């Protein structure tokens, strides 16, 4: 299949942000695609060549790409650099320089036409794969050679998209869920099969895999998909409530409550009694950050193959007490792991089992899963099961909550004991409810917001980015909606470094998935999530979060937002607090207000 057909699709899709239109365009593309190519097309549409959890990167920085463009267009590197400075987009640079080169070549050759074969998607994919796999001495030259050859054979328009794929700036804004919709429509015809497709995706976290099975074996083959050690499962997530009475009501009067540890969620995979791999909440392979966790885990679980979930927590080496989440982020480094291990020792609390020696536990109710976990884990001072209590009344729930807080936890995760309490991979639902500490009674709960813009500071912050435009995630429309401008809570150091922190994400215009009525000084690609606490939620004429939901023309805003100090690098932008959650919080706040008014009057 010609790469130009994919480029036509890229061009059309970048002109719309409407989900239905995007779905139609995807269906058009997938329908033309041979079954053995579909996985590659899906990856390329996501701007990558492998599923997210495979840690193979193309490994070409700007400098190497500049050299490749220079070689392909037979111009000096300085000319490429100069143009890059003015356009800010290496893809555009490739397009401009190769167009010039091609015109010249046509003139030089006059009418002697030596027409080249158009490049295919297979060729582009194969070359990108070779670039990713080139490693070791001489690999830089090898990567540059492959890319420059590919660019030389491509049309200028194709070269633009190849370069954007290589430097990670393709950013079409196509959400995973939209791709699932389009795959279902293309290969099954009806949307009824969507839950089967989504479940397979949640268990394998790999859209290319789902597409390949659908295209080559059909929907029935997808029904049989099970979790597989070595491939991360999309994590089950909790809803939130802050009133113990409501929580118990939602759980029909009885539930299990577990400590909510303030650490990093981890999915532990053991493959055939050999390798142990750790995946983060956002499915990155984090094995190399925690060699100590691997060691003490391997001695305490008596299974050959498994997928078990838990929370890694930092502990104070002197007292053994839990340290806050932020301390654990020191372990997220490439070098000096040994030193970090000594300085920030880790411990793990296990809370769920997804797979064990051939058995898929995702459809088993929680009490049975926990019972099994109990049986197979031999606890030691570093590996334990999450502290748990069966609760049947509000007083016990409150007592247990305070116990968790005083033991250094964030609160509780309250879990359903019903026969329907399956492991719902990839879903946020009421089978789990998080009950977190309110920092101060007048404040709302913390929220996780996505940075979408920055404003230049004044006074002491002159010359720096002094405040941020923050957004919630609207999971219905797959957009990011602004909810506040946040300037407080950042350390001087953070303000000084803010431009560097944001630099890889600064874009020349508003991202198509961002809904904003405000124009910041710099636009930022929705990528970084931070935790924020505010005083209350108010109606807002300027912010777009939940626009028109509560009142026509008004959105919702967080008043007096303050950064709590937590950079949530473990969260993707789609894991941020949703617009619906903010709407719920606003309604709850109103309800509380009415109740207070009633009591006092
Ligand atoms: P948060 O930002 O509150 O950590 P989250 O969006 O990462 O939430 P949620 O599912 O909403 O995830 O909240 C549950 C989170 O709490 C899990 O992702 C996990 O990291 C953590 N956690 C700590 N202890 C437990 C436990 N016992 N059971 C389940 N999750 C736990």
Overview of the molecule:
The chain is 39% helix and 21% strand. The protein is of the alpha+beta class. It has three domains: 48-166, Orthogonal Bundle (DNA ligase i, domain 1); 237-436, D-amino Acid Aminotransferase, Chain A, domain 1; 447-593, Beta Barrel (OB fold (Dihydrolipoamide Acetyltransferase, E2P)). α3 runs antiparallel to α12 and α10 crosses α11 (194-204). Mean pLDDT is 90; it is low at 439-443. Adenosine-5'-triphosphate binds next to β1 and β2.
By DSSP (H or I, 4+ residues per run), the number of helices equals 21
Helical amount among residues, as a percent range?
25-40%
Note the beta-strand portion: 15-25%
- Which descriptor suits the 3D outline? globular
Q: Please give the largest β-sheet.
A: 8 strands, mixed
Present as ligands are:
adenosine-5'-triphosphate
Radius of gyration: 26 Å
Low-confidence stretches: 439-443
User: What's the architecture of the largest domain in CATH terms?
Assistant: 2-Layer Sandwich
Total domain modules: 3
| N-to-C span | 73 Å
Mean pLDDT across residues: 90
Q: Tell me the number of strands.
A: 22
Structural class: alpha+beta
CATH homologous superfamily title of the largest domain = DNA ligase/mRNA capping enzyme
The name of the CATH topology of the largest domain is: D-amino Acid Aminotransferase, Chain A, domain 1
- State the CATH class of the largest domain: Alpha Beta
């Amino acid at each position: 299949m010609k790469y130009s057909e994919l480029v036509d699709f890229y061009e059309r899709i970048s002109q719309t942000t409407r989900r239905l239109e995007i779905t139609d365009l995807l269906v058009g593309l997938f329908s033309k695609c041979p079954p053995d190519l579909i996985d590659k097309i899906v990856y390329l549409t996501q701007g990558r060549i492998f599923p997210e959890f495979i840690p193979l990167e193309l490994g070409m920085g700007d400098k190497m790409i500049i050299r490749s463009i220079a070689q392909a267009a037979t111009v000096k590197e300085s000319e490429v650099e100069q143009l890059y400075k003015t356009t800010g987009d290496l893809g555009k640079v490739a397009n401009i320089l190769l167009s010039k080169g091609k015109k010249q070549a046509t003139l030089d050759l006059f009418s002697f036409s030596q027409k080249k074969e158009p490049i295919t998607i297979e060729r582009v994919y194969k070359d990108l794969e070779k670039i990713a796999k080139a490693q070791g001495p001489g690999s830089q030259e090898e990567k540059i050679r492959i890319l420059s050859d590919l660019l030389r054979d491509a049309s200028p328009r194709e070269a633009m998209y190849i370069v954007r794929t290589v430097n990670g700036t393709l950013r079409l804004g196509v959400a995973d869920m939209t791709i699932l919709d389009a795959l279902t429509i293309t290969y099954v015809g009806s949307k009824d099969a969507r839950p089967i497709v989504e479940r397979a995706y949640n268990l394998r976290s790999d859209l290319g895999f789902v597409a390949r099975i659908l295209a080559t074996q059909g929907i029935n083959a997808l029904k049989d998909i099970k979790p597989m050690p070595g491939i991360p499962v999309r994590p089950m997530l909790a809803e939130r409530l802050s009133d113990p009475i409501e929580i118990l009501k939602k759980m029909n009067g009885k539930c299990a409550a577990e400590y909510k540890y303030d650490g990093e969620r981890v999915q532990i995979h053991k493959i055939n009694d050999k390798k142990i791999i750790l995946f983060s909440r956002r499915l990155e392979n984090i094995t190399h950050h925690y060699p100590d966790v691997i060691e003490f885990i391997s001695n305490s679980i008596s299974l050959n193959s498994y997928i078990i979930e838990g929370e890694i927590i930092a502990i104070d080496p002197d007292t053994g007490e839990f340290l806050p989440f932020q301390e654990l982020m020191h372990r997220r480094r490439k070098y000096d792991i040994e030193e970090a291990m000594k300085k920030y020792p880790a411990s793990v609390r296990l809370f769920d089992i997804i797979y064990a020696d051939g058995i898929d536990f995702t459809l088993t109710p929680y009490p049975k899963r926990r019972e099994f976990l109990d049986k197979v884990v031999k606890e030691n001072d570093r590996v334990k099961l999450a502290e748990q209590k069966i609760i049947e009344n509000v007083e016990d729930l409150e007592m247990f909550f305070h116990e968790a807080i005083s033991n250094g936890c964030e609160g509780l995760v309250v879990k359903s004991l019903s026969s329907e309490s399956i492991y719902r991979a990839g879903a946020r639902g009421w089978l789990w409810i998080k009950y977190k500490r309110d920092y101060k009674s007048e404040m709302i709960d913390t929220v996780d917001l996505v940075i979408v813009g920055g404003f230049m500071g004044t006074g002491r912050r002159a010359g720096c980015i002094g405040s941020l435009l923050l957004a919630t995630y609207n999971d219905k429309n797959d957009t990011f909606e602004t909810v506040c401008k946040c300037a407080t809570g950042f350390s001087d150091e953070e303000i000084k470094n803010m431009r560097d922190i944001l630099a890889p994400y600064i874009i020349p215009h508003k991202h198509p998935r961002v809904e904003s009525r405000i124009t910041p000084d710099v636009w930022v690609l929705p990528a970084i999530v931070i935790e924020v606490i505010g005083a209350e939620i108010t109606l807002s004429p300027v912010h777009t979060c939940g626009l028109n939901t509560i009142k026509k023309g008004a959105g919702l805003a967080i008043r007096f937002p303050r950064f709590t100090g937590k950079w949530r690098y473990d969260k993707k932008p789609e894991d941020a607090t949703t617009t619906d959650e903010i709407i719920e919080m606003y309604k709850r706040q109103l309800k509380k207000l009415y109740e207070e008014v009633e009591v006092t009057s």
